[in-house]
Each structure stands twice: as structure tokens, then as C-alpha cells.
Amino acid sequence: MEYSEINRIFEEHDKYTILTHKSPDGDTLGCGFGLCYFLRDMGKQANVLNSDGFPERYGFMYADYEPQEFESEYVIAVDIADPQLLGGGLAQYQQEGMVDLSIDHHISNKLFAAKNHVEGDASAAALILYNIMKESGRRISDLTAKCLYTGIATDTGCFKYENTTPQAHIAAAELMAYNIDYANVNRKMFDVKSRGRIEIEQIVTGRMEYFFGGQCSMIVLTKKLVEDSGVDPAEFDGLASVPLSVEGVKIGITVKQRHENVYKISVRTTDEMDASAFCRRFDGGGHIRAAGCEIHGTLEEVKQKLLEEVEKALENG
Amino acid sequence: MEYSEINRIFEEHDKYTILTHKSPDGDTLGCGFGLCYFLRDMGKQANVLNSDGFPERYGFMYADYEPQEFESEYVIAVDIADPQLLGGGLAQYQQEGMVDLSIDHHISNKLFAAKNHVEGDASAAALILYNIMKESGRRISDLTAKCLYTGIATDTGCFKYENTTPQAHIAAAELMAYNIDYANVNRKMFDVKSRGRIEIEQIVTGRMEYFFGGQCSMIVLTKKLVEDSGVDPAEFDGLASVPLSVEGVKIGITVKQRHENVYKISVRTTDEMDASAFCRRFDGGGHIRAAGCEIHGTLEEVKQKLLEEVEKALENG
Questions:
Q1: Is a pLDDT exceeding 80 seen at residue A234?
Q2: If you measure CA to CA, which chain A residue comes closest to B203?
Q3: Over residues B32-43, mean pLDDT
Q4: Which chain A residue's Cα is nearest to B174?
Q5: In this complex, do A182 and B164 lie within 8 Å of one another by their Cβ atoms?
């Protein structure tokens, strides 16, 4: 879609419902609240919905947000590739025909809305939304700018990852012209960890094992370890990058127990190894630097199978 | 100085020595090697010097670098605010009149060179150097671009900190037009830690203490702890940001033993507290979010003095 067509939609209706994805991140919420404030500044009514509520760490986006009472005319999904990602709390919107417009940057987008605007090469959905708002010629408020910056920054790991584009940097440069307190946003998004998360990182790094002269590192998360830690199991998500953060490691492996004798394996590699090829040996797959598979057996058997393949891969690589 | 004047200097001479600062970081080395390759590409001779040698983690900058043999005609210091920062290995250049040109972004620059180009508001010295090179109209090689990107990224914490400017983002966007493999650079610069460092973070987070309902956190590094760890004491630098990385903490304090009954205190605060005002109570000082002081007494006395002031500050704040 042309940006002007999307802006015409923002003009044409009066009462908007904006849907964000479950387990919300900075991009979906940055889009949700950024668009909500933009529409309200146009004199429209708009609300942001999320199946799981709004996490406290994004509080700076919704500190003064109040839901408005109105009968919705137009439903917009932001940063949502698949209606399943709306979550149970927004199940009614998963039915066909419920979403009028989808704005997203996932190439895998299911095109589930009546109108779909997908830019698969955009670093973040918030970057698309920013470009749409620019096209409108309307003033963007500081708070909207802050929400959009947060979306771009969080989806690129603060401009660190492969998916960072020149366009993402240029948008950040332009958004810094607003009063967005980006350093504080970035501190909250990237430097602050919960006590539970810190405890867990402490546990797993303390138990990290090294193999092949430190070229391979491994953390093992058994059900017992998770339970004994007394920490919210959700805090154990996203640990897969930890083993590869050690200097000299080429392949970092996270072994997470699913059930008795069933282990989920996450593999991360530097540019010296192919994680996807490694996981294909165990009927898994993924990306060249991040892949996964499932292996059955006792923990010792699983570790031995993995290390045998690591040894071969290191010899070949 | 005008950029054109600096480019005339790059034209006028044939044999350049480039000085970088001791305990080198990504900015000084990014400038050093970036400028060296730029000059060599112009058909000049150029070498990069450092008092401490070039750390392995910056190896991607100098993998194919070979020192050239020549009698130097012109000496350039990059990212060096004070000749003291040249270090003992480059002591001969600390004498007056030894440095012909200094290119730097520290407002505190001592203007020690014959010609000084200082832009105190630049995020990184590498950003200044990039702008100089752009003015020349000459082609910048991929490797030069990669060195300059590294300088800008490292000095801004990957575009995370307060000192990140729109200009830094725009330069990054432009440098991404070269083949710089920025994601891999960023991984090496920001995600990879030595095993010693990981061990230490594990030790200090495991011993982190929380006070006032988690609003204050404290780590204590005694000489004994450092010695018993068996880890290179240099790995203990830069831990001051760790206590503030915990959710809910407003003031993070690092207590490091200097001598018997002498402790160096590093204080980091969120925007809810003033670190500088806090440290002034102990005749220290610094910036609003990062400050320091020294307190004498037994460890228990030092901690109690600190906590009394934290309590007052929390009550007032």
C-alpha cells in the first residue's frame, strides 16, 4: 500500500482499536501506543489492546494512557505476523474479517487482515509507522516519537544486529530531534534486568561447561534446576545467547529439558560455524547463526551426541 | 580547523606516525587504523603506534596490517586528550613539540599538539575523522569504513548512551553502505566477554547486597576477593554499572578496597537520584548519573556511612 492510502484511512474513520501481539515487546507496543497517540492527536478516539496486559518495563509509554469508551469502527494490527499471536485474550479478533488493516515487517506475515501493509525488509514495524506518519505531514508528538524510537531500538538490539538498516539509523537520527530521552529508554530496555533474571544468569554461567579448548560452551537447564531456583520459569527464556558470549567460543549450546529424556537444544554460532547445518544432523534447523533441534535420551546421552557432532564440525570447519 | 586544511596536511606529507592512547579502546584504534589505511590508500606511508600493543579483540582491524619502515615526517594523535594518555611506551612523544596534529573529541583536550582539531560535541573521534575523509572526496576502503564504524559504535555503547548524536546515527547509516559486517563487529565489541570477566560478574552478582526494599544495591570488592578469584585484576575494571543494572535499583554502589581501611566508592544512579550530590557528601564528585569518592574506615564503617546517606537521599528524593 502507498503510505498516502494508509493516511487516508487514518483520516476517514473516528474510532480505532489497535491490536498488539501477545508477550508484547518494544516494537508492538511502540507501534501500538505511538499510533494511538498519533490518532488521538488528530482528534480521533483510539485504544491499544494486548492479550497479556502491558508490562511494567514499558510503563514510560503508557504512564498517562487512559482507555477511551467508544464503539470501534476500525481495527488495526501492528507488528503481528499471524492472528495466533494475538493471544487468547484477543481471541475474538482471530476470526477472519475482524482486522481491517495490518502493518507489519515480518516477511512471514499471513496477510490475515482486509488490507495488509508488510515491508519485510524493515528493521521494525515502528520504522514503517514512522515513515507513514512522516508522509502525513502532521506533527508527531514527543511521546509518539519516543514510542517509535523504542520500537526501532528494541527490534535491532539497539542498532546492533544484522537487521539494522541505514533507514533505521536515519529514523533514529530524526526521532532524536524530539524530546525522547533515548539514553534512559535504552537503559531501561537494554541494561536493566530483574533480580530473578540476574540470579538465573548467575546460576547458568556458574554451571557453564567448556569443551574442545573453550571452542564450545554449554548450559544445561533441567526441570529440577528451574524448579529449585524458585525463579519465575519465564525468566529462563532467551538464555540461548549466553554460551556464545564467552570469548573464544565458536558454538554455544543450550540444553533445556522438556520432559523426562526429551531435550530442546538451542545452538548459536559465530561466523566460523553453521548452526543450521549442525541442527539438521538432529532433524532440526533454523538460521545460519541460530538454530535448534530436539534430542531424546538421558542427559548424558544427549550431551554425548551433541559433543560428537561438535567435534566433527570443528574438524571440518 | 577546517576539514580542508586537515586534508591538505594529509596531501602534503609522505610518512606519517599515528599515535593512539594507552589501554586502547575501539575509538582510538578505529581512528588509528582507519587513518593509517586511508593514508596508505593515498600512496603515503603510515604506521599506528600504541604503548600497550593492540588487543586481540580488535584483531579484525589489524589482521593484515604490517608496520612500514620509514623515517616519520609527521605525527598525528587520535582520540588523545592529554599526552599522559600516550603511556610509557610512547613517552618520547609526551615532550612538547613532538605531536604535529591532534584530532580529538574530548572537551578537556589539553591542546598539546602543534595543531589541534577538537570537536567536544562529537560522539567519537572516529566520527570527526569520517567527516574529514568525506570532505576529501576520496574513496574510503571497506576496512577504513569498518574501523570508523567501530570507533563510533564503541564510544556510544552501540548508539545507546546520552552522547549518541543524530550525526553518529547518520554516519553509521552511511558507513553501512560499505562492506563492514557491522553485526559481527558489534557482537565482538558488545556481546563477547572473557571467561575471567564472566567469572567475576558471577562472583559480584552472587554477592550483591540489596537495601531499602531493593532501591539500593551494593557490591564490595575487597583485595582478598580479587586475589582469591585468581582472575586478572584488570578484569575487575568497569564493574560499576553492574549494581544499577538491577530492576528497581535507583542507586548502585561499588565499594572497592584500595588499602587497609581505604575504599574507593563508585556510584551510579537512575534519573531519580543525583550521584554527584551524593558523592559530594564524602568530598567526592562527578556527573549526575556517575560519580565517585573515597571513604576511610573499616568495611563495616564505610558501608554504614554510605547507607546512612542513601537513606537520607531516598527520603529527600
A1: no
A2: A202
A3: 98
A4: A166
A5: yes
First to last CA, chain B: 45
Residue closest to A99 by CA, chosen among A109, A112, A89, A110: A112
List residues bridging with A104 in a β-sheet: A118
β-strands B290-296, B285-286 pairing: antiparallel
Question: Exposure of A300 by Cβ count < 10 A (0-12 exposed, 13-18 middle, 19+ buried)?
Answer: exposed
CB within 8 Å of A257: residues ≥ 6 apart: A220, A221, A222, A223, A263, A264, A299
- Residue B287 has a pLDDT of 84
Cα–Cα dist A225/A222, whole Å: 5
Per-residue cell: B28: 582510538
Nearest-neighbour CA in chain B from A60: distance (Å): 13
Lowest mean pLDDT among A172-176, A269-273, B12-16, B133-137: A269-273
- Rounded CA separation A292/A278 (Å): 9
Residue type present at position B192: V
Whole-structure pTM value: 0.90
Q: How far is B107 from chain A (nearest CA, A)?
A: 20
Q: Determine the residue type at A234.
A: A
The fraction of chain A above a pLDDT of 90, given in percent, is 85
Structure ipTM over 0.85, yes or no: yes
- Other Cβ atoms closer than 10 A to A271: 12
Per the listing, cell 573464544 goes with: A248
CB contact under 8 A, B245 and A192: yes
Label residue B41 exposed, middle or buried (CB < 10 Å: 0-12, 13-18, 19+). Answer: middle
> Poorest-confidence range of A133-147, A244-258, B98-112, B198-212?
B198-212
How does residue B317 score in pLDDT terms, banded at 50, 70 and 90? low
* pLDDT on residue A154: 96
Q: Which residues of A touch B165 (CB under 8 A)?
A: 176
Q: What cell does A153 get?
A: 531500538
Predicted confidence (pLDDT) at residue A303 exceeds the cutoff of 80:
yes
A296 min Cα distance to partner chain B (Å): 31
Q: Cβ distance A236 to A230 under 8 Å?
A: no
In this structure, are residues B212 and B314 in contact, taking their beta carbons and an 8 Å threshold?
Answer: yes
Cell numbers of A74, please?
476500525
C-alpha cell read off for B14:
609522505
CB contact under 8 A, A170 and B170: yes
B33 Cα to chain A: minimum distance (Å): 22
Residue B167's closest chain A neighbor by CA?
A173
In tens, the pLDDT along B207-266 reads 999 999 999 999 999 999 989 888 888 788 779 989 999 999 999 999 999 999 999 999
- Per the structure block, which three cell numbers stand in for B8? 591538505
Return the residue of B nearest to A174 by Cα: B166
Q: In the sheet that B74-78 helps form, which strands lie side by side, from edge to edge? A: B45-49, B15-19, B74-78, B101-104, B115-118
